[in-house]
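Practice problem. Given the sequence and the SMILES for pyridoxal-5'-phosphate, write out the predicted structure.
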Amino acid sequence: MKYYSTRDKKNVVSAAQAIAQGLASDGGLFVPESIPAVTITEIQTLCKMDYRKKAVAIMSKYLEEFTEDELTAFVSEAYAENYDCKEIAPTRFLDDSTGVLELWHGPTCAFKDMALQMLPRLLTASLKKLGETRKVCILVATSGDTGKAALEGFADVDGTSIVVFYPHDGVSDVQRLQMTTQRGNNVFVSAVEGNFDDAQTGVKKIFSDREFAEKLDEKGWFLSSANSINWGRLLPQIVYYFSSYCDYVNSGKIKLGDEIDFCVPTGNFGDILAGWYAKKMGLPVRKLICASNRNNVLTDFINTGVYDRNREFFTTISPSMDILVSSNLERLLFMLSDDASVKGWMDELKTSGRYDVGSKALAGIQADYSCGYATDDEAKAYIGKLFKDTGYLMDTHTADAYGVLAKMRGEGENFPTVIVSTASPYKFCDSVLDALGEDSSKSGSELIERLSAVTKTTAPKPLAGLDGREVRFTGSVEKEKMPEVVMNFLSKKD
Ligand SMILES: *Cc1c(COP(=O)(O)O)cnc(C)c1O
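Answer key:
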């Protein structure tokens, strides 16, 4: 199977090239030239497999250059004891028509592990297949979750190094501790004076600096990115839609072949787009419900076909969804139109911050998607209510999805739906305690203990153990010094 760019169908590459490059040279995103079909009989077979086997079965359809043995080796490392439950991504049922797909049992307690435990393996294997002899340095600017998940994924992976920059004042206590205590001989973490935009601008500048690339090349290094536009990150996410559907069938609450909805807390549109691929492959999905927080640019888009980022940016209690430009949307637009249209819209987005996809593409979007958003107050109210009613504790991102579904469901409506849960409530202790009406004024690890005591739930091990771990990275740099930091770190590596 070949891949081509969303901005130019003549830009064709192999799967290994798509994963190694990340972004197409014309600025587009790589998409598979066709979507492989899965029959109901195959889904029946999948339902008897464990998560790892399902992952090999689904991913191999998109990765013809990789052998089954290779993929089996990758998944047996990516989804193993680093997860705190053997199902890897279990679906818990609140009632017969509401499941919660928990994607946060991995090493960093957020759903990005599902992809970032897999990407390093796909990436290093791709580089090998392409005959690349240099080592790769992954460069990340993070607002919190991605940085830690990428560090865990790449730590001590042969032939790689990873450097993560986070905004000095822009991450939570727990998030900072998670990153600054990261283990591994090939990792480096630094704060940047400023906000997330400063960190991201700094990283982008390094990526586009030719001279810098040449210097690295002389030392046997090149730069790559682990961000969510890489096909190697999207692909592993298709798997858990199948696995959750199987959970639903295996629970006896639906029959094989019955349709269900998925309600997905959305930021960069990667997670929910993976669900769309699953649906197009043949998974019985009726609608994908795109849930946003107050940064509801996607709600407006799915309702009107007009994407308009010219609006106020809000900082919310679901920070991983505080996004005004959802990069992965470009892939959906391409599948519903063509490369020339996508290129035009992306140019408009760049110049005016706005584009209109017209009625034909809009109809295509609305055939597969519903949408809605929840405010912080609503999300908190639902966290409190659900815990009081059922004892189920959810995080703030999951609560946005829960809230959107609750508002969408009229009286008595109960179409079977899976809410995709993207983070452990312990990752956002302060807001969750707040939602429960409890004191949230303490610092990181005290909050974890408090949430555990108040809810009589157990904190995930990776978070509970944070306090005792050695802080390895204390530095903070000005944005201008970021290239120097990368160069110094890599110079010590060879
Ligand atoms: C990244 C993230 C999201 C958003 O996922 P996208 O694929 O960017 O839409 C939602 N919730 C949490 C906790 C996340 O870390």
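Check your answer against the key. The domain at 91-105+234-426 is CATH 3.40.50.1100 (Rossmann fold).
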